[in-house]
Amino acid sequence: MRRIVSIAVAALAVAGVFAARSGMRQPAPEEGGKKLIDLKSDLMGPVAPGDSVVFLVGNFAAQHNGAVITCDSAVRYSDMRIEFFGNVLINKNTTYIYGDRAEYDGDLNEARVYSDIVKVIDGDATLYTYDFRFNTKTNVGRFDRGGVLTNRENLLEAVRGYYYADAKELVAVERVEMRNDEYELRGDSVVYNMATDNAFFYERTNIWNRDGDYLYADRGAYEKLDTLYLVTRNGYVLTEKQEMWSDSIDFYRPRNHVILRRDVQIDDTEHKVLAFGDYGEYWKEPGNALLTRDPAVVSYDLSQGDSLFMRSDSMFLFTINEAAERRAAERRAADSLARAAGEIPPADSVSAAPHPEAGQTDGAHPAGIGGDSLRRAAESAAAVAGRPDSLAAETLPDSLRSAPDSLRTPAVNPLDTLTGDARKAYLKEQARQAKAREKAAKAEARKKKLEEIAAARQEKATAKLLAQKEREEKRLAARRLKAESKLKARQARAARKGKRIEVDSTELRELDSLLGRNAVEQDSLHLAADSLARDSLAVGADSLAAADSLGQEPLRDSIYRLLKGYRDVRIYRSDFQAVCDSMTAISTDSTIHLYINPVLWNQGNQITSDVIDVYTERQQLARAECVGSPIMSSQLDTLHYNQVAGKEMTAWFRDNEIYRNDVNGNVQTIYYMQDGEPPEITDVGFIESGDCSFYIEGKQVVQITYRQEPVWHITPLPKLAPDRELYLKGFKWEGARRPTQREVFGRRVRPSERAARSRLRRPDFPLRQALEVRKRELTEAGRWADRNDQVDAATVEWMRALGFEVGQPRESGPRL
């Protein structure tokens, strides 16, 4: 009996100590510089008589560093070490941790939670794992045996992870897989922000976005607000038709706009073109690109010839949809007329989003670049401030609406009502609109001038072809007349001899057929000219120039590509080279237009002119048209050069070598004749004529045909007067400017990775699959429940008495 009484007295004494501690309203006193653990329970006592280990049951709760722990029962081993059993719940702020058992070490401020499946909730985020450690002081948790996180539409899994409650971040490490409604990801490590859905990724990260594009990075980030993918190391992008490499990539997915920096390479597999630079921008729709900082382009379609290399200080590639642009222009014009008539509200009061068919609206700014939102806001503010109250106006009676002008409210001048920043914004916008109108007027004037030039060129080309056809018709008619005369003479001779012969009239039929075909071709030329005149207002200036130069009808409602290069343009292919200040290449007729001091070399021939238009067919040189003081020359030695000049020049190519050169208008020639082996210059000829043609074989001139009363002087070289000029006006040998392949292109070419990247395994979430199986088995066995319980009301009041608040989780969003 005494023993029972002594045990009861000891138990009451211990209970009194704990009851006193549980009733404190201030934080626990510190022992050795550390905060003690606050405890409360309905019943507590030593596990064995005289034992310092104490059990606690009934409405148990513990508090340390503001974190509260509740469970069915607990065992206290010391002031700083406690073990918890059954329905364990740990809460601090918005973090809730659920398990079957837990150990807490107050010296380390760490709770280790054990369960068949541990569940952690923080707002909309839910983490499932198999063991979890949580530091109540730093609010950092970690797991090591695999974890699966769901947060709204996001799903993430990793072998190891670190949960930062204060920052709302999960650092996932080792075999990370992630998905949401925007992308799927596989990588080595990801930092995911549960509040913003932003993600930072590191080594060997593979991403597939919702459009089917693939992105690789060794370091980067995803920003959900702008749907922006950022790559800062070793970036790679794979689309249906392009591959892109760069050290740094900004990929704005909604606009399909990519910005690339440092060591850029773009492989356009559809057009077999490689583009390089240290800064580039690409717009997937409509397919525009900008390259600068030592850019270069390589055309590698080897089935049609050697690779072509091109470089300049800056390059622009435009994909132009004429039909879409025409529809967009008509829509804007209709909207402008409707606004002028008051049928629709001003543009700044409705959505400023571009129409999906708008395409490229400005040649200098590819489509897809977002408008200036600050400018639109200023427009809207200024317009609203400057308008009368439209709602009040709508309520006016009809009689007042029809009142005389003297009774109506005068229009309000915005400058009289606006002040401060609003006034500045209004004035700035008015100036911008005036400048825009001036720019539009200049553009319209330039377009009209280009149309006039194009029409003149078309008229000249058509007239030339018609004259040629007329000459051909006269020649065929003369041939037919001659053949007919011969036939009649044969018949007359046979009649005189009393014979009758059957005459074959095949030649006459052939001549009639040729005459008929020539007449049809002339009619078609007239029709083409008429069609061009009708459609000249509906096509761009570049398309007009290209169509005129071929004498063909331009393609309407077509999509074509336009490449522009500016400053220090250099072109290299094994069979020809060229330099100029700027160039334009058009895919509609496969032309390259060279401007400002252009020079073209083919084998030993050099051509200079004000403008050179190079035409290609199936990646092969077809002809080069030179307008504006053209000179073709070839070097014999450092003193003597064969030269020919005129008003216009057309060099014709066969197998990418000049085989004929036609020169028209005031032709001047200096030609040196050679003899012997090795060849030595013997005579020099000075020839002038209206037109001439040079025929070249094996890099040698084999025939020269002069027309329209040529005048020539051939002088033996020893008898040449010392003051005789050996160079035509404007001649300059530009051999020092002739580029080599190394001068045009010296970058490293990365091999295609399309096949290997396309075979990569996409995320299949093995940890989540195993978790779902385990959850189902444990639930059926009654060993686990997916808990969502919260801290009970009595414990909440107890925590408030200690000076702490218990966090309540937000309503969770949809789970994956």
Automatic annotation (TrEMBL):
Residues 424-486 form a coiled coil. Gene3D superfamilies: Lipopolysaccharide (LPS) transport protein A like domain (2.60.450.10). Residues 1-19 form the signal peptide. The keyword Coiled coil applies. The keyword Transcription regulation does not apply. It comes from the Bacteria. Residues 342-394 are annotated as: Disordered. Residues 49-188 form the Organic solvent tolerance-like N-terminal domain. Keywords: Coiled coil, Signal. InterPro entries: OstA-like_N. This is Organic solvent tolerance-like N-terminal domain-containing protein. It comes from Alistipes dispar.
